[in-house]
Design a protein that fits this description.
Cofactor: Mg(2+); Zn(2+)
Protein name: DNA helicase RecQ
Distance between the termini: 64 Å
Shape: elongated
Largest sheet: 7 strands, parallel
Bound molecules: adenosine-5'-diphosphate, zinc ion
GO molecular function: 3'-5' DNA helicase activity; ATP binding; DNA binding; four-way junction helicase activity; hydrolase activity; metal ion binding
EC number: 5.6.2.4
Keywords: ATP-binding, DNA damage, DNA recombination, DNA repair, DNA-binding, Helicase, Hydrolase, Isomerase, Metal-binding, Nucleotide-binding, Zinc
């Protein structure tokens, strides 16, 4: 018969104090721990930094047996196990980086009941051999971290998570927990269903991160804007800059470094030694700025990140929330800054159109992008918009750009009609379609070679938009695209009418536009570099 690990602590609070040195539980922690120690299931939605780890580790120390932790992040696993061991907890992990001998040793420890906590990657639980092995010991609980990975709706779907739904049947009587820092109502529902936890108690924390100041500005010269933003932060601020491509990461890091910022790149194309050197510099030294693809940051626990900057538009609000959530985990003021422009909208729409995946997947991606665009273009409180996305109501926050400097709204109906009718004419009269640049040239009456060669100066709309600057026009087009009043098609992002365009042409759809503010740089806590 398997041996159970005897409980180490009489009470949860005793474990909390002894192992972690904390005086008290925070927020929902005590209630969650109670539920699990009592043998019940729990679904925990808590933002990053909310303190999820304690909620599955403490029950493992109090209940008999070994707590199984399912985590997709090998790096995180490693760090957590090291930290637990340093505090006298008998924790271990099983993963593919280990030698067969190391694995055998840990398996023996588990079966003989010596482990408090055992971390495994989800793909392991997809194997019958692992399940049989787990049956040879005693589990005190099963914690499924990053549970949103089970959601096809979300941005992080991992097929291996689907198999976790069978663990309840396989290990009856063992309390299960699903934990995540991403939780739209839709994802929440999918976690409950797919992990088969109908009787779980739900713990939904507020997703507000009040110390993070949100700022989104129109993109004109992204690197210069980024540099100005970073220079306005207090001396020695550590930060993360997210860019979409490796190339953009490299170039941005080089640009910042050339301008006196201690910036280093991080992406999957760098060799392992460089990556780990850069990561440890970021963690250990002051004032390092990591320029990275979104792969960076998952599971990186650096509490004093003072800013997170995006120079490319994230694909979803969940992604944006998670990435910006890496700022200010210590509760001190922090800034989430983003530069976003017409090019981002065109590029992401194109990536969706040309991406793999069926119609349903494309539609989902489109909806994710639309929500992200709505957040970018809102003239109301950013935080309110963000929290509403997670199904949480709130009032204006007073700590975002739109609250601090309410944007001006102007009537864009006439410019929108000028643009749309130019597109209509080109299509009807000449069966032609163009991207934003050339359309703006026509509207502004620019005498470019292309305009002359194509005789677009003979169009009746030629020059009718010269009351607006090129930048204004880009802003108009961006906002029309963001609202679906215009669509960008094909490889070159040529602009075309959408079904909703008709209402604009008829003057029935109001077109209130946001006046862009560029380069109004934020100071999070005074002082400048
Ligand atoms: P999450 O996994 O939700 O992102 P963590 O478990 O990593 O959050 O906890 C975030 C931070 O809060 C950590 O630095 C942790 O040490 C701290 N923390 C968690 N619970 C408590 C508590 N009860 N009292 C004090 N600090 C806590
Ligand atoms: Zn606000």
């Amino acid at each position: 018969l398997p041996t159970a690990r005897p409980s180490r602590y009489a009470s949860a609070l005793e474990a909390l104090k002894t192992v972690y040195g904390y005086d008290a539980f925070r927020g929902d922690q005590a209630a969650i721990v109670d539920q699990v120690i009592g043998g019940g299931d729990a679904i925990v939605l808590m933002p990053t930094g909310g303190g999820k780890s304690v909620t599955y580790q403490v029950p493992a120390l109090v209940r008999e047996g070994t707590g199984l932790v399912v985590s997709p992040l090998i790096a995180l696993m490693h760090d957590q196990v090291d930290a637990l061991r340093a505090n006298g907890v008998n924790a271990a992990y099983l993963n593919s980086t280990q030698s067969p001998a190391e694995r055998a040793q840990i398996e023996r420890e588990y079966v003989s009941g010596q482990l408090d906590l055992l971390y495994v990657a989800p793909e392991r639980l997809n194997s019958e051999a692992t399940l049989r092995f787990l049956e040879r010991g005693v589990l005190s609980g099963i914690a499924m971290d990053e549970a949103h990975c089970v959601s096809q709706w979300g941005h992080d779907f991992r097929p291996d998570y689907l198999a976790l739904g069978g663990l309840g049947e396989r290990f009856p009587g063992v309390p299960r927990m699903a934990l995540t820092a991403t939780a739209t109502p839709e994802t929440h529902r999918e976690i409950t269903e797919r992990l088969r936890m109908p009787d779980a108690k739900h713990f939904v924390a507020s997703f507000d991160r009040p110390n993070i100041r949100y700022r989104i500005e129109a993109k004109t010269e992204p690197r210069k804007q980024l540099l100005a933003f970073i220079r306005a932060q207090p001396e020695g601020s550590a930060g993360i800059v997210y860019a979409l491509s490796r190339k953009s990461v490299e170039e941005t890091a080089a640009f910042l470094a050339g301008n006196g910022i201690d910036a280093i790149p991080y992406h999957a194309g760098l060799d392992a030694a460089t990556r780990s050197r850069h990561q440890s510099r970021f963690l250990r030294e002051d004032g390092v700025v990591v320029v990275a693809t979104i792969a960076f940051g998952m599971g990186i626990d650096k509490p004093d990140v003072r800013f997170v900057a995006h120079v490319d538009l994230p694909k979803s609000v969940e992604g944006y929330y998670q990435e910006t959530g890496r700022a200010g985990r210590d509760g001190e003021p922090a800034v989430a800054w983003m530069a976003y422009g017409l090019g981002d909208v065109v590029q992401q729409r194109r990536m969706i159109q040309q991406g793999e995946g069926d119609r349903a997947i494309q539609q989902r991606q489109q909806q994710h992008l639309d929500a992200m665009l709505a957040l970018c273009e809102t003239v109301e409180c950013r935080r309110q918009n963000l929290l509403a996305y997670f199904g949480q109501e709130s009032g204006p926050c007073g700590n975002c750009d739109t609250c601090l400097e309410p944007p001006e709204v102007w009537d864009g109906l006439v410019p929108a009609q000028k643009l749309l009718s130019t597109i209509v004419r080109l299509k009807r009269e000449r069966n032609q379609a163009f991207g934003a640049g050339h359309l703006i040239d026509i509207l502004r009456g620019a005498a470019t070679d292309r305009v002359r060669k194509m005789r677009h100066d003979e169009l009746s709309t030629y020059g009718i938009g010269n009351d607006l600057s090129e930048q204004d026009w880009r802003s108009v087009i961006r906002q029309l695209l963001a609202r679906g009043l215009l669509v960008a098609q094909g490889e070159y992002g040529t602009l075309a009418l959408s079904e909703a365009s008709a209402g604009v042409l008829r003057g029935e759809t109001p077109v209130g536009l946001r006046r862009d503010v560029i380069g109004r740089v934020s100071r999070s806590a005074g002082g400048a570099r």
